[in-house]
Design the sequence.
């Protein structure tokens, strides 16, 4: 029983999360504390959400500023200035086009699926209703996004899903070409750096091939940067490493510093296919959340901030590679910037548990990868401390 009398393990919550016993009560920077006062180094960052760490003054100030207006929510019946400014800022940083705001990564991808079909049905060829996705992909858990997610265990209990999805191996240019030639594909969905599926970087030349093929066959290229976007890889957007621009990009996790927000950025040809009533959301793009997102995006997009991510990422990578050399249980290291994965010989869950018991929070990706995703402004000492704990467990 806690101070307030609630038995946490017996709380009447639906059992879709396998949660450990600890109860988090407080956070600061890269650290969180449980109700018993025990502290943990948080290299999950709320699953790549808390980019500026816990208790960020940037976020607190933005929330205060938004609260001072008295307008937390207006719905999309009306315009507000923070939403317009956020759209302008993101479009200025990404590629020319327009933005749509929603409340999560899955919602952003769900909107992208709809936008692609709408574009195909009004600007592009009417026959294009289907989608291509890739092995290892994760795009969300709603019926459309689950259908483009490559995880049998997530899909199986919920079929039938949205039909018309074709999976190909990353790198299978010929297979993608053949599918696109059929004239039935509206869009190709891909994460430039796969997160949940096991921290796999998509080779730049494959992204470039997809761009060429989509242009040649008249399909949209959709980059899901929900996890890898907004600074995580050391550039503001992961696709900038490959110098390939998509027609549609989805964002979410770190966008509003922990408040729920997703975004879909689309080029003008896609935007011009969309009409009032085609899509919508009650909560998407509230002035409060948009004000916080503006502050987060401004902080993260500073060149010095992004350089800091690259340097921290390099430090972490070197440490993990050293560990991989010394440990028989580690096969290798994958990833980019501050989204790194330790590829293990066996299941990742045991390492995640052992790390937590030693005061380090990390999260699994796929079955055999431990994901290390600290806040983007993590201290070097904290990176060292986290590496030491991993070393103790894996040595
Ligand atoms: C987390 C994630 C999603 C889903 O986002 P939710 O906010 O959990 O719905 C989609 N795509 C990628 C790449 C993700 O990492």
Sequence:
């Amino acid at each position: 029983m806690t101070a307030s009398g609630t038995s946490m393990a017996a709380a009447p919550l639906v059992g879709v999360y396998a949660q450990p016993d600890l109860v988090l009560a407080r956070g600061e920077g890269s650290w969180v504390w449980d109700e018993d006062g025990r502290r943990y180094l948080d290299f999950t960052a709320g699953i790549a959400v808390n980019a500026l760490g816990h208790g960020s003054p940037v976020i607190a100030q933005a929330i205060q500023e938004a609260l001072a207006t008295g307008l937390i929510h207006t719905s999309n019946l009306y315009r507000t200035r923070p939403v317009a400014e956020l759209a302008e800022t993101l479009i200025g940083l990404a590629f020319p086009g327009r933005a749509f705001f929603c409340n999560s990564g899955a919602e952003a991808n769900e909107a992208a699926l709809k936008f692609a079909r709408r574009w195909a049905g009004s600007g592009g060829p009417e026959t294009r209703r289907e989608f291509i996705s890739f092995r290892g992909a994760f795009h969300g858990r709603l019926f459309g996004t689950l259908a483009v997610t490559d995880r049998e265990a997530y899909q199986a209990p919920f079929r039938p899903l949205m039909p018309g999805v074709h999976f190909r191996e990353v790198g299978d240019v010929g297979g993608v070409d053949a599918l696109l030639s059929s004239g039935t594909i509206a869009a190709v969905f891909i994460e430039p750096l796969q997160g949940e599926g096991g921290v796999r970087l998509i080779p730049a030349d494959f992204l470039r091939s997809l761009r060429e093929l989509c242009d040649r066959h008249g399909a949209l290229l959709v980059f899901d940067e929900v996890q890898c976007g907004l600074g995580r890889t050391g550039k503001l957007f992961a696709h900038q490493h490959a110098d390939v621009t998509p027609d549609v990009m989805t964002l979410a996790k770190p966008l509003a510093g922990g408040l729920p927000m997703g975004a879909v950025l689309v080029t003008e040809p896609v935007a011009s296919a969309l009409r009032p009533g085609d899509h919508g959301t009650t909560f998407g793009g509230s002035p409060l959340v948009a004000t916080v997102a503006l502050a987060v995006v401004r902080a993260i997009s500073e060149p010095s901030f992004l350089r800091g991510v690259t340097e921290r990422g390099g430090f972490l990578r070197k440490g993990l590679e050293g560990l991989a050399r010394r440990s028989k249980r580690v096969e290798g290291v994958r990833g980019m910037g501050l989204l790194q994965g330790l590829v293990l010989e066996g299941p990742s869950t045991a390492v995640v548990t052992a790390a937590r018991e030693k005061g380090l929070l990390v999260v699994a990706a796929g079955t055999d990868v431990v994901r290390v995703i600290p806040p983007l402004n993590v201290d070097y000492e904290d990176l060292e401390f986290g590496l030491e704990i991993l070393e103790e467990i894996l040595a």
